[in-house]
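Students often ask why inverse folding is considered easier than folding. One informal answer: many sequences map to the same fold, so there is more than one right answer. In these notes we will look at a single instance of the problem. The structure comes first.
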């Protein structure tokens, strides 16, 4: 839908027409984490009186929404963890989400001190993500909406991360580095949408780190990426890995392939599959290499690539803010490298802790509540999941 379609809203169709408070339940399950969150949005004043013809301008509504109070009432999560060396399959992850959904929803209402009839909207992750887990959560959301007679709000997972990051950190109009197990994007807001300036051409940075963790048999508890980060702190030898930046885009599959060859040759690692092509460059590396050295080298290389494309986006739009979101955004070394780049530019870096950077239900509740306050809902026939739901497909009607 064109941005011009959102220049004015019919105030009679907005939930804040004659009241100030909206409570939203959010359900997240795009990967191996099932999250449930409850948020309360409170405007300083209801939308009455509206402008001429009962309409309110997009700018006026966005201004009101930006100043409203946001309370996190509940934010609970359960992670499906597999044995060391193994990933998580969509079918098994979907079973996990169905198994824990009722327990987490019950706990969220208990933490919030609310009843189901006090919720105004049921928000759920519509995509992107893994099909099976997304479908499980969508079924739960539809069921609750029908049982409680509440509207559904489908939420883009990436937009959920961005809006929660903006809310928690106070970043106003940042360049966003979105890094997770399934996504790697550099994003900035312009003309009613979050525009993708650059992204991965193959696998996501989190997937790259997770797969290497499995190669060297690091445990998946609490997460493979976290264990890579801890191991990297004990590494000291920097292996020269392939550095693949193509304009504003990045590629990680070649790095992963090369470092797997190093692990096989220098650490005696067997991956259970076909051995990587023998590389002369691997022979030149010292035999004293440790798993910690490889974790250190991998982090330094991939994070340098991410910092480079983020800085280029900042220069392009003249931004002085960087917001890091997504599960990999919890990595302290990534935050340090980004902070050094920002310091040299006189800019600021914003990041959240694991409560909000790792997939969670409250980010879906918050982004869903914002959309709902602009009159957006998702009909039952339209509530199907979309595995490749692009960030820039969402009309961000709550911003100007």
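Output (designed amino acids):
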């Amino acid at each position: 839908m064109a941005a011009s379609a959102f220049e004015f809203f019919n105030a009679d169709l907005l939930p804040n027409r004659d009241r100030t408070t909206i409570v939203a339940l959010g359900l997240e399950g795009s990967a191996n984490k099932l999250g449930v969150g409850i948020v309360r949005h409170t405007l300083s004043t209801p939308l009455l009186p509206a402008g001429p013809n009962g309409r309110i301008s997009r700018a006026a509504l966005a201004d009101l929404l930006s100043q409203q109070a946001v309370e996190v009432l509940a934010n609970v999560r359960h992670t499906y963890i597999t044995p060391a060396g193994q990933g998580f399959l969509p079918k098994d992850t979907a079973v996990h989400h169905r198994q824990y959904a009722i327990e987490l929803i019950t706990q969220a209402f208990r933490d919030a001190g609310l009843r189901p009839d006090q919720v105004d909207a049921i928000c759920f992750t519509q995509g992107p993500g893994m099909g099976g887990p997304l479908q499980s959560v969508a079924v739960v959301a539809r069921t609750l909406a029908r049982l409680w007679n509440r509207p559904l709000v489908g939420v883009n997972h990436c937009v959920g991360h961005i809006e929660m990051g903006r809310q928690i950190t106070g970043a106003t109009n940042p360049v966003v580095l979105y890094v997770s197990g399934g996504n790697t994007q550099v994003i900035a807001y312009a003309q009613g949408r979050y525009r993708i300036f650059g992204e991965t051409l193959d696998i996501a940075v989190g997937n790259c780190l997770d797969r290497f963790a499995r190669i060297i048999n690091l445990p998946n508890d609490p997460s493979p990426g976290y264990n890579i980060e801890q191991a990297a702190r004990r590494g000291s030898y920097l292996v020269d890995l392939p550095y693949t930046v193509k304009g504003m885009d990045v590629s990680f599959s070649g790095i992963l392939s090369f470092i797997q060859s190093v692990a096989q040759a220098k650490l005696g690692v067997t991956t259970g599959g076909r051995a990587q092509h023998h590389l002369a460059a691997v022979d030149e590396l010292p035999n004293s290499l440790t798993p910690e050295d490889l974790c250190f080298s991998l982090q330094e290389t991939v994070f340098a690539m991410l910092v480079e494309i983020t800085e280029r986006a900042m220069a392009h739009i003249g931004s002085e803010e960087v917001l890091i979101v997504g599960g990999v955004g919890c990595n302290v070394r990534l935050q340090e490298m980004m902070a050094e780049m920002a310091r040299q530019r006189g800019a600021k870096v914003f990041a959240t802790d694991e409560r909000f950077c790792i997939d969670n239900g409250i980010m879906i509740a918050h982004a869903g509540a914002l959309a709902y306050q602009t009159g957006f809902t998702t009909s039952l026939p339209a509530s199907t999941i979309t595995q490749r739901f692009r960030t820039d497909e969402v009309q961000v009607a709550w911003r100007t």
